[in-house]
Amino acid sequence: MMRARGGHDDAVRGGRFAAPQPAEGLALRPRVLERLSSPAMQVGVVTAPAGYGKTSHAAAWVAGDGRPVAWIDLEAGHDDALALLTDLVAALTSVTDFEGFCLPAGGATADQYATGVAAALGRAVRACTVPFVLVLDDVHRVHHVSATDLVGSLVSTVPAGSGVLLVGRACPVGDLSRLRVDSTVVEVGVDDLALDAPGVAVILARMGAESSVEHASSVAAETERWPVGVRLAGLAALADGQAHDPGPLTLSGREASVADCLESVWLWGLTDVERDFLTRVSPLDWLSGPLCNAVLDRHDAGEVLHNVVRDQLLLIPLDRRADAYRMHGLLRDALQAELERTDPRGVQRVHRKASAWFEAAGDVDRAVRHAVAAADFDRAEQLVVEHAPSLYTNGRYTTLGRWVESLPRDRVVRSPALCLCAALTVLGLGQSEALSVWLRLGEHAAESSPEADPVARLCLLDLRSTSNTGPVRPALDDAAAACRGLPPGIWHAASCLAYGVWSFTAGDDRAVAVLTEGAEEAGVFGAPALEAYCDAVLAMIAHTQRDPGRAWPLVARVRRLAADHGLERAPGMAIVSAMHALASASTGDPHAAKDSWQLARTQLAQLKDLSGWANVQTRVALAHTSVLLGDRIGAETMLREVREFLVRQPDATQAHKQVAGLEELVQSMRRHSAIGPSALTTAELRVLHFLPTNLSLAEIGTRLYVSRFTVKTHCGSIYRKLGCRTRSEAVEAARRSGLLEAEGPADRG
User: Fold this and answer.
1) Cα atoms in the 13 Å half-sphere on the side-chain side of 252
2) Which of 85, 439, 560, 732 has its CA at 20 to 30 Å from residue 672's CA atom?
3) According to CATH, what is the number of the domain 10-193?
4) Is the distance from CB of 190 to CB of 48 less than 8 angstroms?
5) In what order do the strands lie in the sheet with 324-327?
6) How high is the pLDDT of residue 108?
7) From residue 224, how far is each of 50, 184, 193, 196, 316 by CA, in Å?
8) Dist CA 317 CA 286 (whole Å)
9) Which helix (H) or strand (E) holds 168?
């Protein structure tokens, strides 16, 4: 039997179980030390890959703790249960009134450790009355079930007032649920130990490398807040002579110094199978068992991933179930560089297989990215063209733009279909100049490629019709041709919108039937933006026909549709916002009408000169709303802007009738002074959008393609109409009136 030695023996005084000193130059995380110092904590678990300062944080914590401390640096030999038990007894005996008489002095079978020895150790620990702290460092070295049973029994029987801290790359105690329920366990992980920008700056400063706030943030991002990575970045800065003038960070896992560090502190414990596995999947930024099985043609990838996380914590779980992971960026760089050296074609092979897997899984974004990474541009183009309609009609313009930009520029301009995708992106973002360019490039590509897809030609024709700001008849003919030639689907629904709205503008009775067909088809094929546009115009037609019983339910439906898909603030939704303003004013809700009126005005400022029909019908709706709200100035402003568009559309029969009827209503209104927020013109609203930024008048002019003098003139008019004398007063007044969002625009110049 093992016998207690009693009291604080030479094992602690002589340093055998003494705690180490915290490493110098490490920016400790105060929050971690505070959590470990909680009076309720009986068991602490600190797990992270190498280089995160686990041991230093543990040493700093015990240095400030008043209880006797025993520290065991676990080694490979401690995976033997008897060796582990021997040191546990010695350590506990040195710091508390531990009585180990009932524990075996010799060997025992695995079953005996599980059923008898572990339980006896637990009873002896629970009986201790002198408070103590026991730290087991590198606890991931314990694997054998006999040894893990001892650790599990130990942590489950810690008496009140004492504490056991497990420190390592992984925790051998799989079930801590009871301790979590009792709130006696504190768990510290990678996110807790990772450095923030101030911590990065502290480490760099201690190394003699100066760092600005921006540079520290850049280092934190590139190293993913890994303390050792930060030190490597500091060494790189010192080696490059940038200690006092830090430049852009270029730290990568491909650098020899970083790769060597990763090899020594992270990869050393992997088996050859695990090392080869991680190297071959390193091109992937998202990992799961099924994906890795697909790209490597194996069936056990999930188990390998689980083992790597359990034993080395080399992968970062992306969900609570640990079904998906990612690698640290530096590690991924290093392993991918190794794969490129040993199997250059392996990288492209992984990307091609990953693209197919993600497409089948419904993640088209990743499918496109992997196809591009594999230089499989035929596949990438096919994916982009196939899914562009859905992205556009769901308001995902930036995603579509990113897809197009990821492809070689010369390939894009040679493809009518890709030019169409680029045109859809800029149309959604309200960029009229860019839209004209992409339409010309697409039409040129179609003319130069007799074998080009006829659907792409018709779609370009429809898009030119949609964006038309000139006479109605050519746009109507283009839309009709596209509508007749396109097969059922999102593109055909889009052509129905253009055909229907131009028919209405020209006074053609076919408008309702065509727009109804477009709305129904858009609903079937999952194109909420198109469905909203069609129904909004149908509501306008019903309003024009003085049928509110049909108009306002349509508006309510369109409003919900836009909200459900997060489209309310998109520039193209100006007609939806305007019709909601008109419906609210007509049904006696002036507050909702004013809010939607202001939103539509903001959207019009972004829409600029794109789409003559949308600009005209939106302003008609806003002018009528202003009449109902008694805002003569707002009505006159809208009518003045409508007339500017209709100068280019002399054949817009219905639109001219709408304006004439509104002008009669305006003439009967009580006269007001031509001042107030509603009097701002569209050009003035565009300038107003930039006033909260730090841009000068000249810089604003550059953004808007006008002269500084023009911007200054608009500013003077804005100040007068808002009753202000300074730029800041104008911004504040615009925010109060709803012309600008309360927090201001995100772009500060």
Assistant:
1) 9
2) 732
3) 3.40.50.300
4) yes
5) 287-288, 324-327, 315-317
6) 59
7) 14, 30, 11, 9, 11
8) 10
9) strand 163-168
Write a three-state SS string for 689-741. Answer: HHCCCCCCHHHHHHHHCCCHHHHHHHHHHHHHHHCCCCHHHHHHHHHHHCCCC
Q: Quick one: tokens of 527?
A: 């194109």
Residue 70 forms beta bridges with which residues? 134
Roughly what angle, to the nearest 10 degrees, separates helices 344-360 and 289-296?
A: 130
Question: How far, in whole angstroms, is CA 636 from its chain's centroid?
Answer: 43
Which residue is listed with tokens 């200054």?
712
Instruction: Report how far residue 571's alpha carbon sits from residue 681's, in angstroms, rounded to the nearest whole number.
Output: 17
Rounded to whole angstroms, the Cα distance separating 166 from 148 reads: 12
Beta strands in 289-446 (DSSP E): 315-317, 324-327
Give the residue, 170 or 109, on which the prediction is more confident.
Answer: 170
Contact between residue 124 and residue 153 where contact means Cβ atoms under 8 Å apart: no
DSSP H or E segment with residue 188? strand 185-188
- Of 667, 661, 649, nearest to 609 by C-alpha is 649
* Nearest CA-CA partner of 429 in 440, 438, 442: 438
Q: How many Cβ atoms are within 10 Å of 508's Cβ, its own excluded?
A: 17
The upper half-sphere exposure of residue 661, i.e. CA atoms within 13 Å in the direction of its Cβ, equals: 13
**Which residues are 167's β-sheet partners?**
46, 137
Average pLDDT, the chain: 86
Nearest-angstrom CA–CA distance, 508 and 662: 21
Q: What is the CATH number of domain 453-667?
A: 1.25.40.10
Q: What angle do CA 734, 738, 744 make, to 5 degrees?
A: 65
What is the spatial distance between Cα 415 and Cα 460, in angstroms, rounded to a whole number? 12
Beta strands 315-317 and 324-327: pairing type? antiparallel
Residue listed under structure tokens 């802007």: 641
Phi first, then psi: give them for residue 291, nearest 5 degrees.
-65, -50
User: pLDDT of 451-476, one tens digit each?
Assistant: 777 888 899 999 999 888 889 999 99
Q: Which amino acid is residue 349, in one-letter code?
A: R
Report the SS3 class of residue 185.
strand
Residues 103 and 123: their CA atoms lie apart, in Å, by 10
Domain covering 677-737 assigned CATH 3.40.50.880 in the classification? no
DSSP result, 439-470: HHHHHHHHHH-TTS-HHHHHHHHHHHHHT--S
pTM: 0.70
Q: What is the pLDDT of residues 204-238, one digit of tens each?
A: 887 777 777 787 888 888 888 888 888 887 777 77
* CA–CA distance, 25 with 735 (Å, rounded to integer): 48
pLDDT digits 0-9 by tens, 532-584: 999 999 999 999 998 989 999 999 999 999 999 988 888 788 999 999 999 99
Pairing state of beta strands 69-73 and 133-137? parallel
- Domain ranges across the chain: 10-193, 197-251, 263-374, 376-445, 453-667, 677-737
Cβ pair 659, 643 in contact under 8 A: yes
Q: Where are the alpha helices (DSSP H) in 226-288?
A: 227-239, 256-265, 272-280
213: Cα separation from own chain's centroid: 23
Query: In a 3-state reduction of DSSP, which class is residue 361?
Result: coil
User: For helices 344-360 and 329-342, what crossing angle results, to 10°?
Assistant: 120
Task: Please name the residue that has the structure tokens 């959590």.
Answer: 35
3-class SS string, 656-689:
HHHHHHHHHHHHCCCCCCCCCHHHCCHHHHHHHH
Provide the 3-class DSSP secondary structure of residue 337: helix
Report how far residue 28's alpha carbon sits from residue 206's, in angstroms, rounded to the nearest whole number.
Answer: 13
State whether residue 316 is helix, strand or coil: strand
8 Å CB contact between 301 and 277: yes
First to last CA, the chain: 77
Question: Do residues 469 and 648 make contact, with C-beta atoms less than 8 angstroms apart?
Answer: yes
Would you state the torsion angle of the CA atoms of residues 576, 578, 583, 584, taken in this order, to the nearest 10 degrees? 110
- Where do we find the tokens 């049904």? 587
Strand partners for 164? 43, 134
